[in-house]
Design a protein that fits this description.
The structure holds 2 protein chains of 2 kinds. Helix content of chain A is 29%, strand content 24%. Chain A has 8 helices and 14 strands. Helix content of chain B is 38%, strand content 19%. The chains are: A alpha+beta, B alpha/beta. The structure holds iron/sulfur cluster.
């Protein structure tokens, strides 16, 4: 029988960076096992009250409607700190820049970093810059590390999640991905859709003040569906999402039909998924009062009725919403 | 869109009630991958009674593209390969285009053949021409544009397939057991509903040209049940808002101007006479097979993949011993697991 050579196991492919199953596999088989990490986490509590997290940012195009790589590098890390319940305070930033990159573009990127940091109330305190030869990088990559203070009384964890918890998102799903695809691949949508890229720490703090919250996660790579699956893997409780309640723009639905990609698997940069005890039904109005919570919606619940993550279609039928193995590919026609 | 679905919810349940009155077993093949996806997306199988068997047919263009198409490309250098996204993970005999890209091949995902034409202004570019009647007119048109602009760096690797001969081949094979067809909506918009008249004439089987909303699919099932009950197989058109009996004549002409019918190899189904399209001699300079002397003669590796039987409706994907064991979307053994429209991928995603 002829051998099928599967190069995927020998070299890194883009699928390893997609945030889906292959990324998890890579992290657990190479990084976590070598570094002897107990948890596959991107943030860590160094000591009681102190949280640190780090994130590398690469994006094409570097400037996109609604933001640029600099804004993203700040908001992404601020949000990573904030979803742990901590108050983000400081950022460190490291830049890898391709020879020939215009300084005026760099200035624009750094200015948006400063604006985003001011809005989030964090200080950028240190950094590093390396320049690599032309063609050895594509434009600019930014890695940011965030530090935040975690109040004593805040304990967010998948282990806190209980049956009947309501699942809440704060914003339209899929906007960031649609904005990026539209500008990178010149789909020509008018007006160009905007990325949702935003610092969500103030929103999260307002939520924690108003209500008990069990767990929060930002729905970046892999989207809302991937987070729900990670939660299920962690705590073993079933999840049912109600498709008719999902906040998704009609334009997003239209583009995603065309490309055969589901919004629930699209990366966001301004969407958090929260698990909140059922009795805190007025949290939506608190979230709605925040600039980045105006489109908040309860999208589903935690339940013992099912094992796994399911979507209830508007027809009432249930279909599984599994974790994907790699980024979905846009399909033919 | 969701609102619209809500308004239609009543109708959906009326249609389901009507279907439920029929107690006999009926086996219906949805030919087109987009129907397979829609059935999964709405979890329609969960709403239908067990005597209604929906079988996924050969209508996923990526799935039926043979490995040789990939094999012929992965060792090329100093040429850009432009392709629709879901070809990227289609297994060849020596890995996928995604693997080849990681090893240095310049592979670009495009959304339209016109994007490939733009790439060809700078680099030697091969566009992988896959698809059924829906996609083909656009690619044929692109070849005429390249001809007009004298863009010598552009070429197309023709791997086009046409649906009616495949249905015929399927029905000529003794193993298939089907009572009626849900016929493609988009393909039929080009070729017209008349193209299926051979089904009742030659095979005594009916079919319904169908749209992609739950109501379309459930209506088609009802129509096929009626045909079965009245013993009157015929071609009906549920998708009249898009499909006419004669189809889109302009698109048909665009195809015929550039492409001609030829025999073709379908992955999983084998060799089917007059079931593909090649590039006419007048446009030969844009034929990548000719230009790069590509070898696309087919040797099927024996991987144990049963896509052929899945496509013919003889087994459902979970009946393949490799399904969800060695064959998953991350490591697809067969083509039906690759494309988002493939039967095995649709089962893996929605019906496990
Ligand atoms: S599960 Fe995989 S190996 Fe089996 S028929 Fe489907 S694609 Fe082929």
């Amino acid at each position: 029988m002829p051998l099928i050579i599967n190069m995927k196991d020998n070299i890194i492919t883009l699928a390893h960076g997609s945030g889906a199953r292959l990324t998890q596999k890579l992290i657990s088989s190479v990084f976590a096992s070598t570094f002897q990490m107990e948890e596959l986490s991107d943030s860590f509590r160094i000591e009681p009250g102190l949280v640190v997290t780090t994130d590398a940012h690469v994006i094409k195009p570097i400037f996109f409607p609604g933001g640029n790589i600099g804004k993203l590098a700040v908001t992404g890390t601020v949000n990573d700190v904030a979803v742990s319940g901590a108050v983000p305070a400081y950022l460190l930033a490291a830049f890898i820049i391709e020879e020939g990159f215009p300084i005026s573009d760099l200035q624009k990127i750094v200015t948006s970093m400063q604006h985003a940091a001011q809005e989030a109330g964090v200080k950028i305190i240190a950094g590093d810059t390396k320049v690599v030869e032309k063609h050895n990088a594509e434009g600019i990559y930014i890695t940011t590390t965030g530090i935040g203070y975690l109040p004593d009384d805040i304990h967010l964890s998948t282990q806190m999640i209980k049956p009947d918890d309501q699942i809440i998102v704060n914003n339209y799903i899929g906007d960031h991905t649609i904005a990026i695809i539209n500008s990178r691949d010149q789909l020509g949508l008018q007006p160009p859709p905007l990325s949702d890229c935003a610092p969500l720490n103030h929103l999260i703090q307002a939520m924690l003040k108003a209500s008990k919250v069990h767990f929060i996660r930002d729905a970046t790579r892999g989207g809302v569906a991937t987070i729900l699956n990670e939660v299920y893997d962690d705590c073993g409780l079933g999840i049912i999402i109600d498709e008719s309640t999902l906040p998704i723009r009609n334009s997003t639905l239209a583009v995603s039909e065309l490309l055969g990609m589901e919004p629930l698997y699209m990366a966001n940069e301004g969407v958090i998924v929260s698990f909140v005890p059922a009795q805190y039904y007025d949290l939506l109005s608190v979230m709605g009062a925040s600039k980045y919570g105006e489109n908040s919606a309860i999208i589903g619940k935690v339940t013992n009725e099912v094992k796994g993550v399911y979507l209830k279609t508007p027809l009432g039928s249930l279909r599984p919403l599994p974790m994907l193995n790699a980024d979905p590919l846009p399909r033919i026609c | 869109m969701l609102n619209k679905m809500f308004q239609n919810n009543d109708l959906v349940h009326k249609l389901l009630n009507r279907i439920a009155r029929y107690k006999e077993d009926i086996r219906i093949m949805e030919v087109c991958g987009s129907h397979t996806m829609a059935i999964g997306k709405w979890a329609l199988r969960k709403l239908l009674p067990p005597n209604i068997h929906l079988i996924s047919g050969p209508g996923c263009p990526v799935c039926v593209t043979p490995p040789s198409i990939i094999d012929s490309l992965i060792n090329l250098r100093s040429v850009t390969i432009a392709t629709f996204g879901d070809m990227l993970r289609l297994p060849g005999n020596n890995g996928t285009l995604e693997d080849a890209r990681a090893a240095g091949l310049d592979v670009r995902i495009v959304y339209s053949p016109l994007d490939a034409l733009k790439l060809a202004k700078k680099n030697e570019t091969i566009f992988i021409g896959i698809g059924f009647e829906t996609t083909i007119p656009g690619i044929a048109h692109t070849i005429t544009l390249a001809h007009k602009q004298n863009l010598s760096r552009f070429s197309v690797l023709p791997a086009f397939k046409i649906i009616p001969p495949a249905l015929k081949a399927l029905l000529n094979s003794t193993e298939v057991n089907i009572d009626g067809f849900i016929l493609p909506g988009n393909v039929s918009a080009i070729i017209g509903s008349n193209a299926y008249e051979f089904l009742p004439r030659e095979f005594d089987l009916g079919g319904v040209v169908t749209g992609f909303e739950p109501i379309d699919i459930l209506s088609a099932i009802n129509m096929l049940i009626d045909q079965q009950q009245n013993n009157s197989p015929k071609i009906e058109n549920e998708y009249q808002r898009v499909v006419s009996p004669a189809g889109n004549i302009n698109a048909q002409q665009a195809i015929n101007q550039v492409l001609q019918v030829q025999d073709s190899w379908w992955r999983g189904l084998g060799y089917i006479p007059a079931s593909g399209l090649g590039i006419r001699d007048e446009f030969r300079q844009f034929d990548a097979i000719h230009k790069y002397n590509l070898d696309i003669s087919d040797q099927q590796p024996d991987t144990g993949c049963q896509c052929g039987d899945v496509l013919k409706g003889i087994i459902t994907p979970p009946q393949c011993p490799l399904f969800d064991h060695t064959c998953t979307p991350a490591n697809p053994i067969g083509p039906c697991m690759v494309s988002s429209e493939g039967s095995c991928a649709a089962y893996y995603k929605y019906e496990r």
